[in-house]
């Protein structure tokens, strides 16, 4: 409780004395003077009840709920009882205090009356003495003058004491209103009066004759520290008007005699401390508010220095010098005019020196030299740079999103700077125009944005790795519901959502399930890419707001002397830096992802899943990243206009990298698949000639009737059996490989990998046939079948430009032909050659995945015709629905799903020109037309030309 009593009121003085006699009440006296007693607080010393000192935790641990409720009621009752006792005690003591105060007041009045009467008695006695002695003693005129002078001096002393009694209250009023210049004037005036009284009365007599002067000066003297503390506090405040700063600095000049340079350093130091307090203080202010306020305060320092020390209000003089001139100049009013005193009494009794008193400075206040001003400001700016870099960086670490950095930038750019900012910096002797935001803060925000991008990318990559591990673990089980190593459950399953209602190229690829199926992207893979793309999209949306937000037009401000910071600098000055950093970080993270997959998923002892399944999933994942993750593309092609993609070499490089990574993963799978091919060969191809003989006997050979001319001119007919199709083991082996390959969706495999698989199949077969051809026990019939198998594999699976396999095939054929009678070989070879083409034509669709040169093969095979019904008759084409089971109909070539089919000219089968065939005319002939194959291909091209541009395109 704070109480203020008047010292001159007898009732209050009595109450104060009575308060001191009460032992149960503690008074803290702040100010004791002749005119006033200030009491800060009042507290009652009350005994502490054990019930109020209970430990709450122990109460709840050792008592039941009912007992706790009883204890609560006891505490409440005890509290109410204490309230009643306190009211009673205060009432009783207050009554005693009033009675004591009244008694003291009466005693004071009685004492005053007694003193007054004694004084009257002394005066009367003195008059009587002078009256009776007047005839005997007369005072000289000089003594009369001295008496009059002493009376005047006494009156002057009393008047000055009266001023000392009144000044403290007026100084407090000035301090409360933060008018420290007025408080300084009053304090200096009181100091002047105190020194004057010491000179007039004397130090030795002052304590004995006028002790009140010493007491009152003791009260006034502490105002010096009060004023200095108040000035420092105002100069460190967040909002500091120029007038308040000049008022405080002028007070320091008068009170401490500080020079202009010292004032400059003090102002810079105190404002720096204020900025430190804003940045370092753990207050409720957000990071955005702290940075905005610090920029505002730093900008205001320049304004303060310019206005206080250089120029203000159009005058080539600082506001501090103007304030000092107004109170200490020749035209300044006297300090006495600022006091609330009786003018008549002061004019009559106060000395002329007191009447004309004005504050004075210890030396002449001169403007700050240009070199000194420049040196101090340069040092301060160096401090600002280091402080901002050190402390604001820590503050920005608390911001975890690019949107938060954007809000900070918007808040600061909305601040206003004086319109004559450049003139201020120039007159403050600065080498260049200061830009606190652009020079010190913007760089830190740019670095923080780069750091946030890196952190968000790390989080996204970590989530992707976690999701990838979970997916690989899930699909590694043999009984997985949606296996990745066999996608036939997904590719060949029709769904109503395969084709959307509207075919829009701008739609998301993962919403077009048919397109996803053609590319071999499973739902597991789509989910992975979707999650990865969503995390990147959140980052890109924040970045797009930060880098490409439309610049709003600056609104007209009512203050013509202020403009916004945003109009003095480029808002998006760091756009290219952030975009380049985004590309660099994205490139690093993509390479990190590739390295992670190679080291964790594709090694022999993979930490998760099975190596084969991992290779398939990761290979397709690398392919899908560039298609199903548009946000990854935007990381390299982020632009102002949404939907516009700017070509970028770095993105092309990333696509090439991912393509290479996908190829590397497929290579890992291909190594595993090659072992399966070898196992199929070992399990299917006969290792014994007896088994081969049995299969040859079971195999259905074509019966061909030939005619030849005998010596007598007669024509003789004979029938021969010619191998008609590849052996069962070869077809079974190729079917097994094709079946395993079909589960991988072979049209999604890179051509290089598919060619490696085909080369492996050919290598395995050629190794088998090479070993078989060197067996001396090989019979002629077996050799004929083996020759057809070798030529069939060569025609179906080896392009003409593959010299290695072509030469190998020729060598194997030569070895096999050496096991056949030359005359029989001349008879059988043309039919074997024709049947090889027929077999390839029949099976090229079944084993189409193993044909690496379909267009070349198609140009060699051409199309088949139905047998000729008669001379000049033309074969009729079978119905399209039964083409696959007709013997005379042309077979469809494998249909391409990545591009519309092109019309390939059909080359007719060359007629047999062998010399040995001139005398042999087989009765079984095969008619064909060149238009059949062309019509088939044109129909396919028409169909896929209509659908392929949207569904089967590469985009």
Automatic annotation (TrEMBL):
It is a peripheral membrane protein. Keywords: Golgi apparatus, Membrane, Protein transport, Transport. GO terms for cellular component: Golgi membrane; Golgi transport complex. It comes from the Eukaryota. It is found in: Golgi apparatus membrane. GO terms for biological process: intra-Golgi vesicle-mediated transport; protein transport. Belongs to the COG1 family. PANTHER family: CONSERVED OLIGOMERIC GOLGI COMPLEX SUBUNIT 1. This is Conserved oligomeric Golgi complex subunit 1. It comes from Neodiprion lecontei (Redheaded pine sawfly).
